[in-house]
Amino acid sequence: MSAAAAPQGANGADIVALGEAMIEFNQARADDPRTYLQGFGGDTSNMAIAAARVGARAGYVTHVGDDAFGRMLLALWKEEGVSTAGVATDAAAPTGVYFVTHGPQGHEFSYLRAGSAASRMTPATLPRALIRGAKILHVSGISQAISATACDASLAAMDEARAAGVRVSYDTNLRLKLWPLPRARAVILASLARCDFCVPSQDDARLLFDTDDEDAIIGACHRAGAPVVVLKRGARGCVVSDGTRTAAFDGHVVASVDATGAGDCFDGAFAARIVSGDDPFAAARYANAAAAVATTGFGAVAPLPRDAAVRAQLARA
């Protein structure tokens, strides 16, 4: 791998996310399936932007290509107030791209990401001081699935965070197009043992633990080592457990048009409220409303709400 360019942007962030950001092309018109709206995606990038939009000091750790798409992402993070101190540019690899199409079964993703700059992250390239200076590190299963070296980097980042007393947030975000289920299970279980907050979706958990039973899923996450589990149930809201107390929050009734990035929005809003001093139950209640608002627009980033919109939704509930 060629040497990466020096990281850019202001130092310091309370919430640091690690993973791959991508350029999104979203099929936004049912009457013309050839029309796409250009946007941005990547689960952990969405999470960092979501956290920043509701008031948190967020930063991102990734590699982008030395190309037009990489420069677009750097401009996006600057515009959104997300620190790029942990972003490096790789002149030898491209920035990833994905397409979103919509049909009777919901949205479907098609990726052009093999060999991307982000997939070439390694433990040696981690901005360890940035991670140690955070209050929460966020990692996902996608961060680990894009390559073996990125998986190693994510686990090393989690270990670095824990050694420094930084809490770790982990979204299983299972994508079986990226890796086989047995390997995914092994890595995800190893990650649950390293995290403080586990925020899986019910669809992921069903595959990981071979059950639809919410209590069984939450119990399995706790047994794997996660102290706090927030099970995201889509339109049905979420269930939160700290091992002693369990509480459910119903979904919000909104005019949903696209669920792309809603789970990432939840993760970012949840972490933002934890950093602000909320307990996991109050943080999940807030994040549940934020994720609902995020479904009322197209794309992964554009609909991510500001704090005022989230609080207005909570007031309407």
Task: List the topology elements.
Blueprint lengths: L14 E4 L3 E6 L8 E6 L1 H11 L4 E8 L2 H13 L2 E8 L5 E8 L2 E7 L15 H5 L3 E5 H5 L2 H16 L3 E5 L9 H12 L4 E2 L3 H8 L4 H11 L3 E5 L5 E4 L4 E4 L12 H14 L4 H15 L12 H10 L1
Parallel strand pairs: 1-4, 1-8, 2-6, 4-5, 8-9, 9-10, 10-11
Antiparallel strand pairs: 2-3, 6-7, 11-12, 12-13
Gross morphology: globular
Strand order, sheet with most strands:
5-4-1-8-9-10-11-12-13
The tally of structural domains comes to: 1
Average pLDDT for all residues:
93
The span between the termini is: 51 Å
Can you give a write-up of this model?
This protein has 317 residues and is α/β, with parallel strands linked by helices. The protein has a single domain (15-316), classed as Ribokinase (UDP-N-acetylmuramoyl-L-alanine:D-glutamate ligase, 3-Layer(aba) Sandwich), CATH 3.40.1190.20. It has helices spanning 43-53, 68-80, 128-132, 141-145, 148-163, 181-192, 202-209, 214-224, 262-275, 280-294, 307-316; strands at 15-18, 22-27, 36-41, 58-65, 83-90, 96-103, 106-112, 136-140, 167-171, 197-198, 228-232, 238-241, 246-249. Strands 5-4-1-8-9-10-11-12-13 form a nine-stranded mixed beta sheet, with helices on both faces. Strands 3-2-6-7 form a four-stranded mixed beta sheet. The longest helix is centred in the middle third of the chain and has 16 residues, at 148-163. It starts with 14 loop residues before the first strand and ends with a helix. The model is unreliable at 1-10 (pLDDT under 50).
